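During the second half of the funding period, the structural biology subgroup turned its attention to how the target accommodates small molecules. The most pressing case was pyridoxal-5'-phosphate, which had performed well in the primary screen but for which no bound structure existed. We therefore specified the complex as follows and requested a full 3D prediction, including the ligand pose.
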Amino acid sequence: MSIENIAPEYIRAIAPYQGGKPISEIAREYGLNEADIIKLASNENPLGMSPNAQVAIGAAIVDVARYPDGNGFELRTAVSRKYGVPQSQIVFGNGSNDILELSARAFLQVGDEAIYSQHAFAVYPLVTQAVGATGIVVPAKGYGHDLDGFLKAITPKTRLIFIANPNNPTGTLIDKTTLASFLKQVPKNVLVILDEAYDEYLSSHDKSEAVSWLSTYENLIISHTFSKAYGLAGLRVGFGLMHTDVADILNRIRQPFNVNLLAQAAAVASLADDGFVARSYAANQAGMLQLTQGLEQLGLQYIESYANFISFAVKNAENVNEQLLQHGIIVRPIANYDMPDYLRVSIGLFSENKRFLEALALVVKNND
Ligand SMILES: Cc1ncc(COP(=O)(O)O)c(C=O)c1O
């Protein structure tokens, strides 16, 4: 028996997550200077992080010989205040992916089913398969979630439903009324994970109201991240808001020190800097307009996005991606999301978006 066969069949069947390649790797592979490379591949914040967070990291660094606070007291206090949720209803994660994974480990076992949409965030199938449960993929409707289809897909085996709102990589948004009506119809013994990683990029009109639903729905888990608008992707910190009993379950299986000391300090400082989030939102709005106008000028179809990225259709997407890399532009091919004719580009700074559009214009012309 070969060594890999010791792992259960459902583990061996998992296709590894394909992340955006780091700038250093592309520089090596394509013989480019790192300084000339633009990475618009992982939906990171082009403004970086809040200056407050930088100061907080500097101040906290002298303490890294110590373990972090396993309960994240200061961060818990800050999140509780910001979202108006009792402290007992918050679980912290090593990124919000950790919350997704903890939920799967806590509530799914072999033979159970988890529902998610076609073209939905890649981590949902990953965490589902990792515990030997079965993923049920509901075909997308106009690239978005078909919640009626979700309701029809619920069986006695269903334990978890994953919903990304806005969704990555399509950027689609489910409106609040549709979502509220959906929740009402989901059986109480099925957990709904509402992944709001991009909520800070929504207008005040579209912004989620899900926190106000927590008191009604014991089966609701809302996940948030500091990786996107807060610009702390490299530190890995996110959190889930949920009923106290659900939080208690997740806390039992979470690693005691899953959020590191620098991440906690930076997250607390970031939450206190609303101005930075407002600037990030404004820059994203402007960049989104710049990119959509640019794509329209190139005659390329795109999916209207509510997040900090946009997916656009292009002939020979794989080829176009390769040629963009030769120009030092990293975007994300999304064939693994069942979208082989699309590329996803994150919204960058004005100058980065401009360089991307210029390179894309050349590449598309060459491909015609
Ligand atoms: C929809 C969605 N959820 C969650 C995440 C995970 O973010 P993190 O683990 O960095 O908090 C991402 C990251 O790309 C995402 O797109």
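Two results from this model are relevant to the next phase. Residues 274-297 form the longest helix (24 residues). Residues 43, 95-97, 121, 164, 168, 195, 197, 225, 227, 233, 238 surround pyridoxal-5'-phosphate (CB under 6 Å).
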